[in-house]
Model the fold of this input.
Amino acid sequence: MAAEPMSLSSESQFRSESYIIEISGAAVGIVVRQAEARRFAFHAASRRFNRYNGMTFSGPRDAERFISGQVARRLHSLLEELVA
Done:
């Protein structure tokens, strides 16, 4: 089954088994519904996100928020190093 981009609709009723996680328009991975659990597992599309492989989330939006937050923290850290 092909992954579909996340929609802005409520996560209470998922229509797909997998969703593409994008940051600033770039695909960074997918989350796939785990059959045995009501959770979604993240799978990186780039080596930069391999550290998050296998992490589970309650829904696609939670995964996107987490990954986006990690990117923002890393960017902030890099900017601090540049001005120091």
Summary: Confidence is low (pLDDT under 50) at residues 8-12. The CA atoms of residues 18 and 52 lie 16 Å apart. The radius of gyration is 14 Å.
